[in-house]
Amino acid sequence: MSYAGLIRKSVDMAFQLSSDIPSTVTFTKTAVSGFDFNTKEKIEGVPVVSPIEAFIVASKKKSKKRNTMQKRLIMKAADLESGVSFYDYVMIDGLKWSIGPPIAINEAVISIEVFREV
Amino acid sequence: MYTDIESDIFSVFGDAAWSAESVSTYPSNFIPENPGSEFLRVTILSAARDMRSASGQLIIDIFTPAGEGQSRAIAIADILDRFFRNKSLKTGLGTTQFFLSSIVPAGPDMDNPSLYRSNYSISFNYFGVQQ
């Protein structure tokens, strides 16, 4: 087995062994192919919704001046083969969280930060 | 008034003549996926002068591959001049009149050093109608 395969298997095992810790979140992926200057709107495809397991490793209030909440999520890369983009979003406990930078992607895991005004 | 100015400017980039130039163009606050190594980002700055007129700047960031000189950015500036310099645009109630442009090299892009950024800007006045 390649190192990449080994690492992915280890990540699978980590998610299985800690099965009570990861939360199930709903990831919505929307392909945005461009911007239409005539309608002044982005050109987007049909959203693809999928439930995935994620470790919510940090949750904090982002700013003293505003009620911006930030969470950091770690997910299996295998669950998001097509990657993550700015126009995707995550539903956690029925609330919509928008994805912002940084987005860290490697062979095994994807780490993202999500934001919401509360 | 501001929406009218935006509509006038966007009408250029939504037109087939601009598409024929094959220069990918996006507005500010839009994040393109896979834009490639050559694209433009359009920003409109405008300020009212009175109840029915405004003046402003159309600022276009020209992104080209780093390390390949300025020629392509300058060629794109000339293309932009064909569409905007000394032109008047009217899609709504008022008219947006453009004047002379400038092109300024801004150096390697802060986010992606494989790209070089140049700033094209052109001033305009907008004349509306009394509502």
Outline the structure in words.
The complex is a heterodimer of chains A (118) and B (131). Chain A has a six-stranded antiparallel β-barrel. Chain A has one domain (3-117): Thrombin, subunit H. Chain A is globular, with a radius of gyration of 16 Å. With 118 residues, chain A is mainly beta. The model of chain A has no long low-confidence stretch (mean pLDDT 84). Chain A has one helix at residues 3-17; strands spanning 23-29, 32-36, 41-44, 48-61, 68-76, 89-92, 95-105, 109-117. Chain B is of the alpha+beta class. Chain B has one domain: STM4215-like (2-Layer Sandwich). Helices cover 23% and strands 44% of the residues of chain B. Chain B has helices at 2-13, 16-19, 71-84, and strands at 24-27, 39-50, 53-65, 88-89, 95-108, 115-127. Chain B has a six-stranded mixed sheet, with helices on one face. The termini of chain B are close together. The A-B interface holds A 31-38, 40, 42, 85-87 and B 6-7, 10-14, 25-27, 30-33.
